[in-house]
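Q: I have two molecules that I believe assemble together. Could you output structure tokens for the complex as a whole instead of separate predictions?
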Amino acid sequence: MEEEARKDTVFRLKIDRESETYEEFLEELRNQIQSGSENSLKAMLEGAHPADIATLFRDLSLEESLYLFRLLSHEEQSYTLIKMEEEGLDKFLDELSIDEISLTLDFNETDETTYLLSFLTPERRDQVLSKLSKSDSFEIRSQLGFRESSAGRLMSKDFATAKLGDNVRKGIINVRKKAKEIEDIYQIYVTDEDGVLKGFIPLKDLFLTPINTKISKITNYSVYSFHYDTDQEEVAKSFKKYDLVSTAVVDDLGRIIGRITLDDVLEIVEEEASEDILRMAGVSEDERLSTPILQSVKRRIIWLNVNLLTAFLSSTVVAFFEDTISQIVVLATLMPIVAGLGGNAGTQSVTVVIRNIATGDLTFSNWWDAVRKEFTIGCLNGLVLGSITGTMIFLVKGNPVLGLVVGAAMLVNMLVASLTGSLVPILLKAVRIDPAIASSIFVTAMTDVCGFFFFLGLATLFSRYLIG
Amino acid sequence: MEEEARKDTVFRLKIDRESETYEEFLEELRNQIQSGSENSLKAMLEGAHPADIATLFRDLSLEESLYLFRLLSHEEQSYTLIKMEEEGLDKFLDELSIDEISLTLDFNETDETTYLLSFLTPERRDQVLSKLSKSDSFEIRSQLGFRESSAGRLMSKDFATAKLGDNVRKGIINVRKKAKEIEDIYQIYVTDEDGVLKGFIPLKDLFLTPINTKISKITNYSVYSFHYDTDQEEVAKSFKKYDLVSTAVVDDLGRIIGRITLDDVLEIVEEEASEDILRMAGVSEDERLSTPILQSVKRRIIWLNVNLLTAFLSSTVVAFFEDTISQIVVLATLMPIVAGLGGNAGTQSVTVVIRNIATGDLTFSNWWDAVRKEFTIGCLNGLVLGSITGTMIFLVKGNPVLGLVVGAAMLVNMLVASLTGSLVPILLKAVRIDPAIASSIFVTAMTDVCGFFFFLGLATLFSRYLIG
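A: Yes, here they are, computed for all two components at once.
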């Protein structure tokens, strides 16, 4: 009755980087690696999930990682490679021999293999491909031919099918054949005699139906499929919207050539959702901890230089009122308040609008409502902050006109901030530019320029009440 | 050989808000609703996926939406409710009768039902529950008892199990029983005689094994499970890390009480990844387009007031150098340049660091490398921007000392920006505060204060070369 036969490794060892014992564990590993104690190491890593082993590699040197890697079974190696950080994977693979690589690839699905091979130089890629079976090699070469962020690159070529004219028995036989290669089959795809995709059948339906039933009788014809050149983001959006688990990928004639499952898409969903945060600040969305410094600098410095131009613009606005400032020096001390609040309020608006565009809540039918809402929020914020600031300035400096000028400038700047913050991303989206791209730089530029203009302009208008 | 019997609705009608024909479609719908032409409407909506119908409701009034809703079958209604926007769902459900609601719930899984019921007032909730079967009612009441963002609320109570001592035939019978209720079964869970979770069996393995085999022989014992009180984010992280498709939820004794599938988690992954963007700007992560204005203002104004305090701080720093400015007024025009660049460079650093903390790339073992990298980037940026700015100031104003002062202040501010930008989120995380919370407000405060201090301080030091 009890566990008579253990199937698959039991993952007992949880490796958690945030745990307090992690550092000790790493130290111990390093010591054992130094002394070359293979058996101790195998014992230490027993029950560790390949995803966790891949995590360890982040904190070990290349040599230490390779040493551990070579202690694993080929199946564990194949999974570990997939879960390793993209950055540095090319260097890691460069250290492995062609044989070592091709032996692990036996355990990968085609999209995983294609992914790994894309990190090799063309020569080594060819060498590895020549080690695989002719059919595998052909499949992978054709997959490498697809555009990099397309459905074709994301798909796995391992899927089970049945023809409309087959009966359930044949379908089950097809599943059995594929079951050895594919870990997770949720459904089989149904095609006509020419391989054109017609529908799908969830596995439970297939198995619970009498085996002489025709496939066509239990086929679900509302099947989702994507052309191989569809953008991966499009695919991800549909998975989310229609609660899909698995979809087919078809060629120009509608014939099924691959399948994409939800876990493939999960990473894309997460990446997409978090990339905006980087783009807004003018940072490359590919930037990771391991990105070389010069590469990081390259993208950032471009936007900082754009920022420099906009800063010179604000500076010019201030210079226009140099006379006023030389007479009322206290204005210089108040400039940071007006500009700073404007910048952050603008950032709040732009952030909300960008997120709503990304989730699809804000579209061309309701953009005006969104802008109007932000403007109203800007009014309220402006009234509150303007009153508080104006009052405080009055109390500190004793001049009510100064307080009024600051308060009024604050109000106007809040309005400008909310309008720019909401309109800039919408306009960018309308001309098909990514709304996140450096939007915070443009919005803070606008709020600075307008803030200084209104503040110093009002001060100039009422200068007689402010001098002295 | 052809499609002898159609199973399930064929989703032919794609409703796309971004398409040019969308507005016309909406207009036509509104007209038909006005004239009460039920048959035309049903024809217009034929083949539309409930997710797309839910999308339509966003652009129709409450009355129009209800009218369309009541034309759908109960099954379509159940799915549409799930895909509708959270905001406004309570108002929508308030308009439905108790009977209407309970009839649709027949088609929902328990976690979906629990989700929908949470939008009703307690009285109406009880009324609806009294319409369900005693066992369903009990299940949902107990699920509503779980903490709101816990695994217990996320799970579905519909799952298939088998005992270790059963044979495969019994397992298949259990699946058949559940198959009517559950759309997607990928695996069955294996328990001991007391219901304690022991493992799982992928559906294909179950069906491809001879029926007299003992369940225990084909059970995969490395099963992932979560205690019902686990945070949903924890669950989502594990799904991502270990490529899970389905996990069990267990009670304090380890007995399986529910299951969570990848599509449940997808939304959480996406929400988590994109919420940081809002928190950084000091906006509530719950803010949506439909959030009432006063509610939006509430959260934002708190952080803007914090910003006001930090702005007064910068203002005080500038006031400290008021004498210098009154002598060298041009300094006031250059202040925006130094402060503005510092703010955006700081935002770049803080954004990268926050993202790396969120993805798990930055942890307590490598935080120093991250800070060091940002500092180096800050140096390079500072040298480049400082040189450019200094040179331009020299060319425009003709004073080399002024150019040097600005350039040096720029360099120092870039260093400060990168240090603050990287350290602030790390420190917040270390004291277990969300690193994203208004971090951009704090970082820009630091860069403003330090920028003004160094710029005006250096200017004061070299004032004799700058006056006149």
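A: One point stands out. Chain B touches chain A through 143 residues (CB under 8 Å).
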